TrEMBL record:
Keywords: Coiled coil, Hydrogen ion transport, Ion transport, Transport. It comes from the Eukaryota. It comes from Musa balbisiana. Residues 10-59 form a coiled coil. One of its GO terms (molecular function) is ATP hydrolysis activity. It holds the Pfam family V-ATPase_G. Catalytic subunit of the peripheral V1 complex of vacuolar ATPase (V-ATPase). V-ATPase is responsible for acidifying a variety of intracellular compartments in eukaryotic cells. Subunit of the V1 complex of vacuolar(H+)-ATPase (V-ATPase), a multisubunit enzyme composed of a peripheral complex (V1) that hydrolyzes ATP and a membrane integral complex (V0) that translocates protons. V-ATPase is responsible for acidifying and maintaining the pH of intracellular compartments and in some cell types, is targeted to the plasma membrane, where it is responsible for acidifying the extracellular environment. One of its GO terms (cellular component) is vacuolar proton-transporting V-type ATPase, V1 domain. The keyword Plastid does not apply. Belongs to the V-ATPase G subunit family. V-ATPase is a heteromultimeric enzyme made up of two complexes: the ATP-hydrolytic V1 complex and the proton translocation V0 complex. This is V-type proton ATPase subunit G.
Length: 110
């Protein structure tokens, strides 16, 4: 009878060990499934965020490109105005500069 009882106890321990191993395996599988799902969700969020940031970047590039054309035109106009101003000043003082140069060239110093 002792032998049967020991055999029965061993059988119970083996059954309990198998049940524990099954529970651990199920928990491990569930954990892996949750990790995989979390990774997929994170990847989706990252992709959405990246798309949003890319769209904002492209919008800013487009805006700055449009502004760039306006800036170029504005700078061209300002440059042309400055050139005209310098040409008119040069025309106004060119006669005076010519006379001053002639005076200095023809004046003899001791």
């Amino acid at each position: 009878m002792d032998s049967n009882r020991r055999q029965s106890g061993i059988q119970q321990l083996l059954a309990a060990e198998q049940e524990a191993q099954r529970i651990v395996n199920e928990a491990r599988n569930a954990k892996m499934a949750r990790l995989k799902q979390a990774k997929e969700e994170a990847d989706k969020e990252i992709a959405a965020y990246r798309a949003q940031m890319e769209a904002e970047f492209q919008k800013k590039v487009t805006q700055s490109s449009g502004d760039s054309g306006a800036n170029v035109k504005r700078l061209e106009l300002e440059t042309e105005e400055k050139i005209q101003h310098l040409q008119s000043q040069a025309a106004n003082i060119s006669q005076d500069v010519g006379q001053m140069l002639l005076k200095h060239v023809t004046t003899v110093k001791n």
